[in-house]
Amino acid sequence: MPSLAEAHRPDMDTFEASALHVDAMPCCDSDDEFPSASEPVVDIVLPAPGSTESATQVSVSGVSPECEGNAARATAESLHVSLARASLALSKGDAEQAILALRPHMTLSSMSGGAWTVAGWAWWSIARRRGPDALEVADLVVAAFERAIDMEPERARLLERAVAKLHLFRATLVEDDQRCDALDSALAALGRAMRVREKVDDGLRITLAGTLYERAMLVPEGRKALLTQAAEVMDVLVVPAHCAEQWTWLHAHVLIALAGVSDLHAATRWETMACNILWNYFPSLDAGRHEEWLCRIIETERAFAARLQGAARITHLTGVKRRLHAAVECSTTIHPLLAWINLVHDWSKSLTGTSARSKLAEVDTLFQCIRQLSPHEQGAIAFAQAYYLRLRAQQELPARHLSMLKEAEGLLDVAVSPAAGPDMIALERAEISLARGHLLDGREARDAFERAAAFADGVMDTNPGNAVMAATCALRAHLALAATANDAPRMRRLNELSAHLRGLKGDAGDTLQYAAQVALLDNAPQRAAELCHAAWCAGTNAKELLPCWKQALLLWEHELKNTGGDPSWERQHRYMRLASSN
Fold first, then answer.
1. Contacts (Cβ under 8 Å, ≥6 apart) of 293
2. Which residues have CB under 8 Å from 166's CB, separation 6+?
3. How far is CA 477 from the centre of its chain?
4. pTM for this one?
5. How much is the average pLDDT of 310-319?
6. H helices of 219-243, where?
7. 53: part of which helix (H) or strand (E)?
8. Which of 8, 319, 332, 581 measures 20 to 30 Å from 170, CA to CA?
9. Distances in Å between the alpha carbon of 192 and those of 130, 158, 242, 538?
10. Coil, strand or helix: which one is 64?
11. pLDDT tens per residue across span 240-262
12. CA distances from 403 to 207, 353, 390, 398, 432 (A)
């Protein structure tokens, strides 16, 4: 997760279920001993000469310039004098001087658990500046606290929680496998912290749930088990009032992510719970947070509606419109508008002909409201209109479809704004080119697909913030290109993109559907059929899967014609017939 303070910023594909940024280390612990940037107070236990210990609060702020590594000097002073000097330096915000005072003792047996604790807080103050050596210094903090616990086990109650949060801090400084390792270490430390406490507070449980969520979303392996554990932790929480919003946001995201890796029945239950949680808290929000939550509610309702069919789906979407349309009309940014366009687009796909076009045309009035409320956001509004025209064009005849796509691309020329940066515009150009390619023939179609792939590949390389949408668009573009001319390099690229997308989103229905198409092109019909079945179980519309599924079974049957059949083929054939009959 790029930043613990980073809020979810909807981008062009946030209106599909995806891994979202959530504060995985909530700052509402009821007795949080760990210093934060906003509350620079730490508890330092200082051993008095002779016997008993007393807790002293030391304010840490305004730290001095970084010390030189070889500045420590030998001293004959006793440890308690050095410790007193270190504590005084730390109280004045000079963490480097605190380290210098203790450094002569760090290789001696006289170094106590209390001294290692003070050294750890001092290094933490330095690491928090996030300089070039932040990771190395964070490792020193962990080592200092762990030594303090080893020497004086009674410190575990205070320091295991701090060790966990140090590993969470380390996770913000590294990527990929190293981030997984840091989060695993944090989970282990949190487990130890919960074991050594007589009473586990809800703040610690929230930190545990957030860490489980973050770890689960990094890689698909083990995701469902981690998310289930996070949901179980949150089910028993008594939420402090001062962090109810943060808890609600995290809880909803855990349930939404769990729905993405569950079967159809369980997914519906998780999404229903997530919707209820978001709806129930929405009236309590500050005005400045409404639009962010509005986007999340719309996305969740869309995911829920996608699992319904026929009249049930229309009834559900009608209810969502009744509850949210007024809030969308009052939006001052484009993100709720983009989310609503997608919801209306989903609705239109349940209709045909004039009814479908009329449903999409309802968005026109929203643009009028947005223009009046946000006269200085014309670039963002132009982007939203381009996005809307591309979706609406799908309901038009081919000639009208092409003209609307051309109009949409023209709007992108004036769409630059803080809310619609170059990466979002590039991805929308990719989507428009992809849509145009499917309406053209021959060289023109191939040129359009290549342009779409180039735009999407470029965003993948430069902006990880839109990784899911960029990977999805790139995969679709390369699939379209492979349908015109496939070769070994193209096949390698398709397999790379498919694996990358599954790593980002897990086994969601659309990722499994794309993986099935890739497997079919890769002459692996059995794998393609099994992936189609998995996509259907994950909620993908059977009509979208049947062409690939039928072709995979046909090729697989051809491979088996001299072997006397295969029970696996018979089973997949029954699944396909069942899906086609629903």
1. 249, 278, 281, 282, 285
2. 124, 138, 141, 142, 145
3. 24
4. 0.63
5. 87
6. 223-235
7. strand 53-59
8. 8
9. 27, 11, 26, 36
10. coil
11. 777 788 888 889 889 988 888 88
12. 52, 18, 10, 9, 11
Quick one: which H or E segment has residue 92? none
Q: How far is the C-alpha of 72 from the C-alpha of 131, rounded, in Å?
A: 21
What's the residue count for the chain?
582
Strands 41-47 and 53-59: antiparallel
Residue type present at position 343: L
For 97-111, how does the pLDDT look when each residue is reduced to its tens digit (9 = 90+)? 888 888 877 876 667
- H helical segments located in 282-352: 290-306, 310-329, 334-348
Closest by CA to 128, choosing from 166, 86, 85, 88, is 166
DSSP state for residue 240 in the 8-state scheme: -
Longest dimension (CA), the chain: 91
> Do the beta carbons of residue 12 and residue 468 sit within 8 Å?
no
Residues 6 or more apart whose CB falls under 8 angstroms from that of 331 comprise: 291, 294, 337, 370, 373
| Amino acid in position 88 | L
Tokens of 406: 């051309």
Q: What is the enclosing helix (H) or strand (E) of 45?
A: strand 41-47
Tell me the CA end-to-end span of the chain in Å, nearest whole number: 40
